[in-house]
Amino acid sequence: MIRKRIGNRHFEDVMFKNTYFSDTGVLEIDKKGIIYTKAGTLATIALGTAIVMGAKNIYFAGLDGFSMYQPEDIHFFNDNDSIPFDSRLMQEKATNDMLEQAAKIIKERGGELKVITPTVYKAYYDNSILEQ
Fold first, then answer.
1. 36-55 pLDDT per residue, tens
2. CA separation (Å) from 18 to 5, 48, 110, 132?
3. Cis? peptide before 71, omega within 30° of 0
4. ∠50-56-57 over CA atoms, to 5°?
5. What is the pLDDT of residue 125?
């Protein structure tokens, strides 16, 4: 299926197991490089992937969080299965948990985790790289 979309280009599988809808975020990586998350999103699974691949520094753009827009619905489409806002806030907390866990791993490598665009994850916000 992947080859049908991308042709003959190289790709690698991301090995992960995620438990959806958890009030606590978990990001763990085993010795084989398999990523285990609770309440994982595309962004946090990509974060785990960067760690597995050996990244020392990780910079996010667009990891803003739902509470920045409360109580607005920030989705660009109407969806009958829209997630209630309180569930989105629970996801935001879980994402913060995973950022804390990842930042610890990255710090042990001598690196840093930063969000370079405005964010609710204030501990990681630093746009100074954009000013260079």
1. 999 999 999 999 999 999 99
2. 25, 12, 28, 37
3. yes
4. 85
5. 96
